UniProtKB/TrEMBL annotation:
InterPro entries: Tet_reg_excision_RteC (IPR018534). Pfam families: RteC. It comes from the Bacteria. This is RteC domain-containing protein. It comes from Mesonia profundi.
Length: 282
């Protein structure tokens, strides 16, 4: 296989590792993952036109391992984007039910390909020359009809299904993480039913949007722990101090980001308020 293709794949996996380490509940981060995956998938398509395979083994490796990995992450990022857009903001039980339903849907979709999934999990190779070589498919072996509408130079009858399996596995881990995080958040809420004395009578009287603008500003300015403090941790601290709940902070941030005018409205207000105080004391 040509070195350019291998370099593209290595670069993609290194970049994806960084994105996966960020806050995957932040819509901006998820969009970055979608864009990055799409760009690398397109780069692979272009490279394949320039450097076709000299051996069947090379073609199989590309369509069984390389392309499905990139496509699988793309599918994953698109899925969790939808997941976050529709994530309930009501009670703990409804959130928990929502995650359980998503997990059940994954299993239902996977059972659709149960025999081929065994082939995938057992790392079998006996039929690779049918599944992962272009224009060699048999009609009776095609499970994914979207193959008929794909680019024949950049797809085989089964590489898209392998990408789905990869998506399911990454998604399973992500949903389990969300479920654990949800339980921890519920536990923190239960433990903080009564605010410590030091926090009593410390109520945030401006809007939640203003508070989110302030938190994101502190994060961007690396004002806390030199920027190493995770956004979710910062929000958790603020929630405890003021005894409030900030729901869907990433969506609130997007609304701030795309204001038609005066993007940093609250920060501007803080600056003017302080300048006014200083001037009145002169």
């Amino acid at each position: 296989m040509h070195q350019d293709i291998l370099n593209c794949y290595t670069k993609f996996m290194d970049g994806t590792k960084i994105i996966m380490g960020e806050d995957l509940r932040d819509l901006e981060i998820i969009r970055k993952g979608i864009t990055y995956s799409k760009e690398n998938l397109q780069e692979l398509r272009v490279l394949l036109r320039k450097h076709d395979f000299h051996t069947i083994e090379g073609e199989i490796h590309f369509f069984k391992s390389i392309k499905p990995a990139v496509n699988g992450y793309l599918k994953f990022f698109v899925y969790i984007y939808r997941l976050e857009l529709h994530f309930p903001i009501t009670s703990f039980k409804i959130k928990q039910k929502y995650l359980k339903m998503e997990m059940c849907q994954i299993e239902t979709k996977r059972l659709k390909y149960v025999e081929f999934y065994r082939y995938y999990k057992n790392k079998e190779t006996s039929l690779d020359h049918y599944y992962f070589v272009r224009q060699t498919e048999r009609i009776e072996s095609i499970l994914d009809t979207t193959h008929f509408f794909s680019d024949p130079e950049f797809s085989t009858s089964h590489d898209n299904i392998y990408a789905k399996f990869i998506k399911y596995e990454i998604l399973e881990s992500h949903l389990k993480y969300l479920a654990i995080t949800l339980i921890r958040e519920k536990s923190r809420e239960d433990n903080n039913t009564h605010k410590p004395i030091i926090y009593k009578d410390s109520n945030w009287t401006s809007s939640i949007t203003d508070l989110v603008e302030l938190i994101y500003s502190l994060k961007a300015a690396r004002a806390i722990n030199n920027g190493s403090k995770e956004l979710n941790q910062m929000i958790s601290v603020v929630e405890q101090v003021f005894g409030i709940k900030i729901k869907n902070h990433s969506n609130i941030y997007q609304k701030i980001k795309y204001r038609s005018r005066n993007t940093t409205k609250f920060l501007d207000h803080l600056k003017l308020s302080l300048l006014s105080k200083i001037a009145s004391e002169d």
